[in-house]
Amino acid sequence: MFNEDVIIKPVISEKANALREQDKYVFIVRSDATKTQVKDAVSKLFSVKVIGCTTMNVMGKIKRLRGRPGRTSSYKKAVVRIAHGETIKVFEGA
C-alpha cells in the first residue's frame, strides 16, 4: 500500500481545529490501515516528525430515507500528534 493510498482526506471541523492547538491533526484513513502505516504516510507526505497516532473506527449513523431505515458509511479516523512547532499546510489553508 502506497502512502497516498493510506490517507483519504483531512478532517476540518471545530473539534479538529481545537486539537491543532495541541499539535494533533485528524485524518480519515483506509479501514485496513495500521497505526504504523498512518505514521509513515503522514511523516513522508507532509515532511513532519510524528510522535504518536491514535486510530478509531467510527460506526455509521442510523438514518431514514422515505420511511426506510438505513445507515451512513462507517470509516476509520486517525488522530496524529506531531512534534511541537511543526505544522501541516493542508490545515492552514495554504
TrEMBL record:
Cellular component, GO, one term: ribosome
Pfam families per record: Ribosomal_L23
Classification via InterPro entries: Nucleotide-bd_a/b_plait_sf, Ribosomal_uL23-like, Ribosomal_uL23/eL15/eS24_sf
Keywords: Ribonucleoprotein, Ribosomal protein, RNA-binding, rRNA-binding
GO biological process: translation
Annotated GO MF terms: rRNA binding; structural constituent of ribosome
Transport found in the keyword field: no
Keyword check for Transmembrane helix: no
Protein origin, superkingdom: Bacteria
PANTHER family linked: 60S RIBOSOMAL PROTEIN L23A (PTHR11620)
Family to which this protein belongs: Belongs to the universal ribosomal protein uL23 family.
Function: One of the early assembly proteins it binds 23S rRNA. One of the proteins that surrounds the polypeptide exit tunnel on the outside of the ribosome. Forms the main docking site for trigger factor binding to the ribosome.
Subunit note: Part of the 50S ribosomal subunit. Contacts protein L29, and trigger factor when it is bound to the ribosome.
HAMAP family: Ribosomal_uL23_B
Annotated protein name in UniProt: Large ribosomal subunit protein uL23
Gene source species: Treponema parvum
Organism classification: Bacteria, Pseudomonadati, Spirochaetota, Spirochaetia, Spirochaetales
